[in-house]
């Protein structure tokens, strides 16, 4: 029997609650599809930091490298310095395991969830491939003369040709895989999003896209500046199939993407070093105000489990998660993807498990 070792970081706020429901879905699927899952729990997050002063030890990163994947609930605590825990845990994983791809599907499961007029599930179904270890996130910079009238802050965006090439190449593979899965004769399509008109050094992305793109003549290749991309995502989201972009732009446009698919409560992401390591998480934060209230919607975490299954090579299991979410939302058994669905976190988790079992 196949056997996976999964690290679990429940994290802060609603993180542990939504992660629990994600893991219930995972256990149910493991039983159906005949594999075993061993969970290894990690306590890192704001609460742990306040109690122990520990962020993330090097030894944990070494352990995560040996696991099949890591599953994360949410990170961020209102009583801890801004971003400290997020940088330690989320960026710690991304940089520590060189998870250079951040995969973020933008998929509308049911028309009534969409805030855009006259857009249906067929119009909103694309994937953003976000570069995940470079750009302005590389942490090069600092502050001089802090707190004085002469204060200066600098931050340098880092774009390496190696880092860009591997990201773009993976995005082409994603575009091809999506076209193959559609199996309707429509061609693979990849749009590169940058701001090379104003930020001239981003021309390295333009050239890399053209050169790597020459290896993929079967894939339609397109380009949009990030500002225009935001406009098209609202006006004509049906134009997009696969998008590849920089770290910061990917961060920004995927929050917009989450909104057009119904809200942060449904959006999931995979931080991946293809063929090696993966960390999967809902893209929403720790939502401190909902902590312990059993109202957070766990669908983002459950969708992240689906992405993790796909990464592990359990494609059938991943498809089960996706179709279950789609049918529960389309039928309005789960009426919304926010905290006001009228259903508790645990109820939604139980509905997902029941539906997975019933359709197996
Ligand atoms: C995300 C988050 C993170 C990011 C933060 C928490 C560091 O917003 O995963 O999108 O900016 O990448
Ligand atoms: Mn973000």
Topology:
Elements: E1 2-11, H1 15-33, E2 35-42, H2 46-52, H3 58-66, E3 69-74, H4 84-96, E4 101-107, E5 125-131, E6 135-144, E7 152-158, H5 161-182, E8 188-194, H6 203-213, E9 219-225, H7 226-235, E10 242-245, H8 247-260, E11 268-273, E12 277-282, H9 299-311, H10 315-330, H11 345-359
Parallel strand pairs: 1-2, 1-3, 3-12, 5-10, 8-9, 8-10
Antiparallel strand pairs: 4-5, 4-11, 6-7, 11-12
Helix pairs in contact: 1-9, 1-10, 1-11, 5-6, 7-8, 9-10, 10-11
Bound molecules: 3-isopropylmalic acid and manganese (II) ion.
Would you mind describing this structure in some detail?
By secondary structure, this protein is α/β, with parallel strands linked by helices. The protein folds into 2 domains: 1-101 and 265-360, Isopropylmalate Dehydrogenase (3-Layer(aba) Sandwich); 125-260, Isopropylmalate Dehydrogenase. The chain is built from 11 helices and 12 strands. The chain has helices spanning 15-33, 46-52, 58-66, 84-96, 161-182, 203-213, 226-235, 247-260, 299-311, 315-330, 345-359; strands spanning 2-11, 35-42, 69-74, 101-107, 125-131, 135-144, 152-158, 188-194, 219-225, 242-245, 268-273, 277-282. The strands form 2 sheets. It has a 10-stranded mixed beta sheet, with helices on both faces. Strands 6-7 form a two-stranded antiparallel ribbon. α1 crosses α9, α1 runs parallel beside α11 (345-359) and α9 (299-311) packs antiparallel against α10 (315-330). The model has no long low-confidence stretch (mean pLDDT 97). Bound molecules: 3-isopropylmalic acid (IPM) and manganese (II) ion (MN). Manganese (II) ion is lined by residues 251, 255. 3-isopropylmalic acid is lined by residues 86, 90-91, 251, 283.
